[in-house]
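Possible regression after last week's pipeline update?

I re-ran a chain I had predicted before the update to compare outputs. Posting the input and the new output here so someone can diff against the archived version. Not blocking, just want to make sure nothing changed silently.
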Amino acid sequence: MYFILFKCIYSMYFRFNPLTFESQVNKLKQIAQSENLTIESKIIEYIITITDGDLRRSINLLQSVSQFSGNLINEQIVNDICGVIPMKEVGALFTKSKSSSPLEIYKLVEDFLHEGFDSNQLLVQLTDFIIGSKDISDKDKANFVFKIAQSERMMIESANSQLVITKFLCSVRQAYLMN
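New output (post-update):
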């Protein structure tokens, strides 16, 4: 009983400071070098970004990637293992939806999902794309992110992911037609 109480009190006052991005890059470079892995600095930085700055997850991802790819590690292999969709494809889907008909959007989403991309990951990356875009107004960003949240809720409630994503992209189309 006292041990548990001590652990709770101790953990309330003892916090680790997060590692700096640079120290994580250096640690992963050190590991890659000791394992004779060929990996560019930008790929190491990409791994850290994907894992949200969690060094343990970054090391585990580096290990997983090296087991599947051998000594040469590139962005495509990291994306394939993590299930990350290349942002240029996410951006292309978003851009195409602005000027496509609802039926064309449905086919775009169908083709996109048939390539094996995860619908939940697509919504996450669409959010990142929208928030990071300089071409979308703040008002539209807020509107789109709200609609993505609604889409995620519908998918959690077992709605058809293809229809949900199509509905969202049709709302993007509608917003651009109104402008």
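Follow-up from reviewer: compared with the archived run. The CA atoms of residues 153 and 159 lie 9 Å apart. Marking as no regression found.
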